[in-house]
From TrEMBL, chains A, B:
Species whose genome carries this gene: Terrimesophilobacter mesophilus
Protein name: GntR family transcriptional regulator
Keywords tagged on the record: DNA-binding, Transcription, Transcription regulation
GO molecular function, one term: DNA binding
SMART domains in UniProt: FCD, HTH_GNTR
Top-rank lineage group of the source organism: Bacteria
Family annotation (InterPro entries): GntR_C, TF_FadR/GntR_C, Tscrpt_reg_HTH_GntR, WH-like_DNA-bd_sf, WH_DNA-bd_sf
PROSITE patterns linked to this entry: HTH_GNTR
Signal peptide: none
DNA sequence: GTGTACGAAATAATATACGATCTCACCACG
DNA sequence: CGTGGTGAGATCGTATATTATTTCGTACAC
């Protein structure tokens, strides 16, 4: 969302408040996938009427965080493996482009910041803290996107990340063997940026970086399912 | 959108009707960019209350067809040149991927259909009919996307096309010198598909095809602005 | 015992009503 | 002549009320 401008409305509308409320609940896993969102209940909790809550839920539906069924209700989206795969594909596509498009505008200082974060990421491996790892990983990529000139695509990246955050605790998690490779790939990407590599080369590197994470996750899931 | 399932609800909800109504008005240019969407007026015209209309407008806002301002109202989105460029970039990205991802699943019959449409496209050049050209062009690309396995990305393609259709009559138009090249590029893309080219090669070809259209449009606009 | 019909409770969908906010024309004043 | 205040009208934002739909439990028939 990247705080669209200087002056956010002084008093956010109630539908906006409802939107923020529900979204944060989803992202911090207070509402887990499958959780049923009942208009009246949420409205009562927020001290507003159902109309703004309804609007908030439909916005979240448009973003794919919530599933909605006519005359039945809404629930937090459940990403079955197929959904998950599709989301990651989309994210790899837009993330790859955003990285490549941002690279020409990066300063050496930006690269240094990214590298510092990646070092912290490598450090965090010793403590085995998936949550910290995920947060730092987002920070790293955020630096890479910072100068992306296409706000639509940045928006799509945000949405993809929001969906991942939504299932951080349940389905998605940091895959043990994968993290180290991930750090190495980050460094490789930084190298491509510093050497002014061909845009498409960088785009593919960034894309494959995410797809590799997807593959690792799927393989891990498959492995753990076979040996319960 | 791709009619999600067999049984669409028998009686579409009123908010859905409002959504379809407004969207079709935008796409057929009854509502031109900048047109002010007044809740009460549209509600009266449809014989419903303002609540479903409001919901429809906010859905359209999420899709980028409508611009909304708090306590002021909504209007049909106006794509300034920057917006236009950004939309086309995004479209080129997702379209390129969708084409490459769909190609492996295309039958020779699909390719033949696409080629037939492209022939009709070439034929239409003699009549200088931009509207027919645009429609056939969409048909052509639709065949290329048909087997894309990622519904999210297909959705993004749809949204991009919707924005283009919205300004067909006003800003966007078929650029005289460009159409012939476009037909040739279509044929080249079909050639790549038939020869089972590398996915990346096909993706880039499809992407550049659209970016070339963008460039031609911008150049044309620049040219006509200099000699008024 | 199983399946079906019925009805009540829960919930969503929409209508209506009212209050809040913005826009803009008009006028007072410098 | 320009600048800022002020009020009316238009329009949005939300609360409340009403209607429609679904769900689920229960009783009845077979």
């Amino acid at each position: 969302m990247a705080g669209s401008a200087v002056a956010a409305t002084l008093t956010p509308s109630k539908s906006q408040r409802a939107y923020d409320f529900i979204k944060s609940r989803i992202e911090d896993s207070s509402y887990t996938p499958g959780y049923r969102l009942v208009l009246g209940a949420i409205a009562a909790e927020l001290g507003v009427s159902v109309v703004p809550v309804r609007e908030a839920i439909r916005r979240l539906e448009a973003e794919g965080l919530v599933q909605f069924e006519r005359n039945v209700g809404a629930q937090v989206a459940m990403l079955d493996p197929t959904e998950y795969q599709v989301t990651m594909q989309t994210l790899s596509l837009v993330e790859g482009w955003a990285t490549a498009a941002s690279a020409p505008h990066m300063t050496s200082d930006d690269v240094a910041r990214a590298r510092a974060i990646n070092d912290a990421l490598a450090e965090s491996l010793h403590h085995f803290d998936p949550v910290a790892f995920t947060a730092l990983n987002l920070d790293f990529h955020s630096v890479l996107f910072e100068h992306c000139p296409n706000p639509h695509i940045l928006d799509l990246v945000d949405r993809g990340w929001a969906r991942l955050r939504a299932l951080r605790e349940s389905t998605f998690s940091f895959v043990p063997g994968r993290a180290r490779d991930s750090v190495a790939e980050h460094e490789a990407i930084l190298g491509l940026i510093e050497s002014n590599a061909e845009p498409f080369e960088l785009e593919l590197a960034a894309r494959n970086h995410r797809l590799a994470t997807l593959d690792a996750f799927l393989a891990h899931q498959h492995r753990t399912r076979e040996t319960p």
